[in-house]
Design a protein that fits this description.
hydrolase, Nucleoside Triphosphate Pyrophosphohydrolase, eight-stranded mixed sheet, NUDIX hydrolase, 30% helix
Length: 189
């Protein structure tokens, strides 16, 4: 992980304009984590580390692409751990979305050409397997727009990959994903 990524994560969170008190509290918690932990974006940073994700949408068709996560057993947005080659959180989110969706040419929603954080979500996970203590993902979320006519290609990181109409999300979708999808719809509609 580079100092560039750490600095970008601090900048992205610090510069994000948040209207919601709960999201602002998470933003402050994430910034505190990064201030205390130079390794705060590494998977090995325990008990918590920053991750990046993006919900892939096709606004022209009013649909969202979700992956059925093999470890979680729920439909989620694309995302995961930051890697050594990621210089920015947005690049990590875009890389994960591209790898997991199989769609080239995704673009992140932004302001003035700069991808913007849209939401934060803190959740417990078992990165090291179910037999090991749970950790916490401090997820930084973006919205990715699929190019016209995009066709998904399932990866080995997914049990299933499907487009869903915004108003017909599958039962195995939690409240956090539903809130992210609603926000993505508002931002791209």
């Amino acid at each position: 992980m580079t100092d560039t990524l750490h600095g970008d994560a601090v900048r992205a969170l610090r510069d994000w304009t948040v209207q919601d008190a709960g999201q602002d509290g998470l933003r402050r918690d994430y910034l505190g984590h990064l201030a205390e932990r130079p390794d705060g974006l590494r998977r090995a940073c325990l008990p918590a580390h920053i991750t990046a994700s993006a919900v892939v949408v096709d606004p022209a068709a009013d649909r969202v692409l979700l992956t059925l996560h093999p470890k979680v057993g729920r439909w989620l947005q694309m995302g995961g751990h930051c890697e050594p080659g990621d210089d920015t959180l947005a690049a990590a989110a875009l890389r994960e979305a591209t790898e997991e969706s199989g769609i080239a040419g995704l673009t992140l929603v932004g302001d003035g050409g700069r991808p913007q954080v849209v939401r934060l979500d803190r959740h417990e996970v078992h990165c090291a397997g179910r037999d090991n203590p749970a950790g916490v993902h401090l997820d930084v979320q973006y919205v990715a727009i699929a190019p016209p006519g995009a066709e998904e290609l399932i990866s080995e990181e997914s049990l299933d990959l499907r487009w869903f109409p915004y108003d017909e999300l599958p039962e195995l979708t939690d409240g956090s994903v539903r809130r992210l999808v609603a926000l993505a719809r508002d931002l791209t509609g």
